[in-house]
């Protein structure tokens, strides 16, 4: 199964957030969408998940056109996601946070008792998932009482528990410390599977470079470059978008040198710097 | 093992027996007290029903009494000389619940997109619209005069005539409703409602149709309100719009807030407090609303979560009792 964006544009009033973007995500790989602030990364995720409407173009998953469907239908077709700011059900236990994902998709099936899963089956899957994500010891703890790092992992678990073929991760490393980020990267890499595409929006370049099969760089709502981590790392346009042009870089370097010289003078004058 | 287990189990059984005996002794009390008990039970039924919407799904409904009115008038129409229809009580009980559910869905559809304050305003208006409509539809409802001389209800051939009979009927219904709501609370439906209360957008993102989830809450809650209304009608044998004012809606909401939102034990406690309090203070009857206000403010200041802590709920009690019964040693 593949997720395809075809000439997708998104306008917020007169602001063009995404301009004619075409991308394909096949199952079996980890993709990263990167770009400077305001490049439109989160907009892409929100459009795929059905939170934002699409101004023009189409988003397809297999034979379905996602951008014509309500949000819950999009999720039912197999798109799971995490959020930039944690959005767990704080007042429910860790286990319940996962169980909710198995709510019957149609209320007719609920009322007639033809549920998607029996209770014991559902609990088995949720417990196995908690085990997989190292959360078994806190199954009955309220999600809101977990430390931040583990809440992030729980949100990840919630996105993976239903075995959705497309998983969108919106900044999984945001707010994590260095070790936690490394663990998170290893965890995400270990979740790569032949029947699943993982799409990552992330600022932490170590994580992006280490786990992605393909990186898509956005700038001002347009695709700047797309390819393997090596290709993106050495691409001049990407460096420009992130760091500025060579001339600008020279200027920055000179300014920095000047300041260093000044700092030296000051410390000579007896100002203590911390 | 041994004597301590037996003693503990005996203690547990004795406590349970005491509860049953106390409930069974209520009809032996003077009629006034039985009436108060009936009133408590009716409000428990209503508040447990409304709690589905307010406590679990997190949708503030200020027009709940409208469903109660629908149930009461269902009994008045179908068991009186008004249209000369005389259906059995048990049939009307189900019709009343169904009519309540339909009214709940009718209210639910237009208001589903609203949240918080706006939802409260619209539901409040709905409650008033139903009351005013009843007040003005003279040919159908006799307007403000109401419908009198409703049939005496009977259940399986037993006539329900005295408050004692209604005590047993209401007690049975309250237990059935509390048990079903408890089952729902623990089922995946209850979990989805709680999730809905916390973050509606995320719930949609999990592939759950929040519209049907909310409609289901409205319909089930209104069905309980409707069933309560049928019993009220058969008990009073007289219905008039006066019984279904905004104050009544407010009282049911107050019971939930003062007892403990989303907690069946809390709701039962709230109903007892708010029904008994005005009876104890009946010499100050004209200050009823003032008393409610003082109680509400006191509870909000001292115990913002309600009189009963959210952790002291039905599953906690059941777990505790089971542990006491099963655990081999006292810990």
Gist?
The complex is a heterodimer of chains A (274) and B (331). With 274 residues, chain A is α/β, with parallel strands linked by helices.
Give the secondary structure arrangement, pairings included.
The complex is a heterodimer of chains A (274) and B (331).
Chain A: E1 2-12, E2 15-26, E3 30-34, H1 41-48, E4 56-61, E5 64-65, H2 71-76, E6 79-81, H3 94-99, H4 107-111, H5 119-132, H6 148-160, E7 166-170, H7 178-190, E8 197-201, H8 205-211, E9 214-219, E10 222-227, H9 229-234, H10 236-243, H11 246-268
Parallel strand pairs in A: 3-8, 3-9, 6-7, 7-8
Antiparallel strand pairs in A: 1-2, 1-4, 4-5, 9-10
Chain B: H1 3-25, H2 31-56, H3 65-78, E1 79-80, E2 85-86, H4 89-111, H5 116-136, H6 138-141, E3 147-148, E4 154-155, E5 158-159, H7 163-186, H8 188-198, H9 200-205, H10 210-236, E6 238-239, H11 246-259, H12 264-280, H13 288-302, H14 314-326
Antiparallel strand pairs in B: 1-2, 3-6, 4-5
Helix pairs in contact in B: 2-7, 2-10, 2-11, 2-12, 3-4, 3-5, 3-10, 4-10, 7-8, 8-10, 11-12
Fourth-level CATH superfamily of the largest domain in chain A: P-loop containing nucleotide triphosphate hydrolases
Helix content of chain A: 25-40%
> Biggest β-sheet of chain B, characterized?
2 strands, antiparallel
| Low-pLDDT regions of chain A | 264-274
- Tell me, briefly, the overall form of chain A: globular
- How far the N terminus sits from the C terminus of chain A, by CA atoms, comes to 55 Å
Assign the CATH architecture of chain B. Orthogonal Bundle
Low-confidence stretches of chain B: none
Count of distinct strands of chain A:
10
Q: What is the H/E order of chain A?
A: EEEHEEHEHHHHEHEHEEHHH
Helical content band of chain B: over 70%
Q: Helix segment count of chain B?
A: 14
Please state the average pLDDT score of chain B.
86
Structural class of chain B: mainly alpha
Q: Average pLDDT value of chain A? A: 85
Q: How big is the Rg of chain B?
A: 21 Å
- What strand line-up does the widest sheet of chain B have? 1-2
> Which two protein chains have the largest interface (Cβ within 8 Å of the partner's Cβ), and how many residues from each?
A-B, 32 and 21 residues
- Percent strand of chain B: under 5%
**Approximately what portion of the residues of chain A adopt beta-strand conformation?**
15-25%
Characterize the largest beta sheet of chain A: strand count, sense, and whether it forms a barrel.
6 strands, mixed
